[in-house]
Amino acid sequence: MKTIAIVTAFPPSAGSLNEYGLHLVNAFAARSDIKKIIVIADKYKGEAPELDLDPKVEVKRVWRFNDPRAGIHILRALRTSQVEGALYNLQTASFGDSEIPAALGLLTPTVSQKTGIPSGVIMHNLVEAVDLSKTNLAKSPFRQKLVVAASYFVTKTMLMSGFMTVTLDSFWDILKEKYKAKNAFMVPHGSFPLATDIQIPDLVNRPNVIVTMGKFGTYKRLERTIGAIKNLNLSRTESQKIRLVIGGSDHPATPGYLKSLENEHKADANIMFHGYVAEEDVAPFFTQAKLAIFDYDSTTGSSGVLHQAAIYGTPAAYPMMGDFIDVTEREGLRGFNFTPLDQKALENSISRCIEDPALGQSFADSNRDVSTGVTMHTVASIQLQLLRKTKIGNFNALRRAKNSALRLQEISCSTPN
């Protein structure tokens, strides 16, 4: 298998999982046994140039978010590209925040598999693991019920593709127990590589800066975080004040959310709205900070931003709920945990980090060790082995493994790059 397609949101687009897609593509491009990578990517508004990529990578932008015909465009691009296999980098809302385009797009891997292209899915979340009452569906119980019902059909159909991998053990448990899946595997999220010239200062040498990053407005909101920073700064001198830097954009379902907050707090110099964080700005964004905050009402999958913070030596504050429990208990990440939805508890976590840099440094060092344990190159090797086994139709050895994730890593490590 020398020529593969990767279907993903891809920078300079701001689509969900675009950074993960970039690092996955780069990891495949680094392999000597891959000759050509076709990135089937989303279209985006803007004039930013395409990234400077490896010569073996070609980007075809063929689909748009919320377009019910996205799958048709993707299948046409796959057919004309004459690829030997296709890997989809997805989450439940990759193709839209409306039910019909989202569902139709998610059926594409199975269609491409059935039309003769070995196809696999990296699925970053599952509806069963999401509290829909905390999402943009919060005000519509009927739509919540509709999504739950439709998601079973969609997931069951997606499992008719060659294979599906998930990034958390709890997701794998759902696929095994509820869907009786035989071609589902847990493959860790993987750590993004560090640029060779990046310097990671110790926390004691960083200013009193707190960062947060995401697509805000639904289950990721900022009112508590901003409130916490304002309250803590009331008792601090000018030189001691904490600065909050907010990176990211509006969730598609809540346009204008960040702009309204920016207008509300424009008089406070300690609340900064950075906007979208481009790939080249990710490292300085995190290494400027003593703490990264993840104040979510709900969770929808293993957080790529949390793994980025870990790689850049920035400890995290996050609520002990949902997938954050998973990454703490099963992946071994450590942080300044707080009670969900509790601003006072968040304030206490921020204070602990600022006042005890040695504890924060111990978390940062531990998380870097955990996050670098599985690199994107390992993830790419595992996914390629699965694509190859899909092509020859042989999953028997993997199905017998008690821990598919560990078994897959052993197989991938035995295969030369």
State the gist of this model:
This protein has 16 helices and twelve strands.
Molecular structure report:
The chain is 41% helix and 15% strand. It contains 16 helices and 12 strands. The chain has a 7-stranded parallel beta sheet, sandwiched between helices. Strands 10-9-8-11-12 form a 5-stranded parallel beta sheet, with helices on both faces. The chain starts with a strand and ends with a helix. α1 packs across α14 (376-392), α7 (223-234) crosses α12 and α14 (376-392) packs across α16 (404-413). It has 2 domains: 3-190 and 374-413, Glycogen Phosphorylase B (Rossmann fold, 3-Layer(aba) Sandwich); 203-371, Glycogen Phosphorylase B (Rossmann fold). The protein is globular and about 65 Å long. The protein has helices at residues 18-29, 70-81, 99-106, 108-114, 141-158, 169-177, 223-234, 257-264, 282-287, 304-311, 322-331, 343-355, 357-371, 376-392, 396-400, 404-413, and strands at 3-8, 36-42, 57-63, 85-90, 119-123, 163-166, 184-186, 209-216, 243-250, 271-275, 291-293, 316-317.
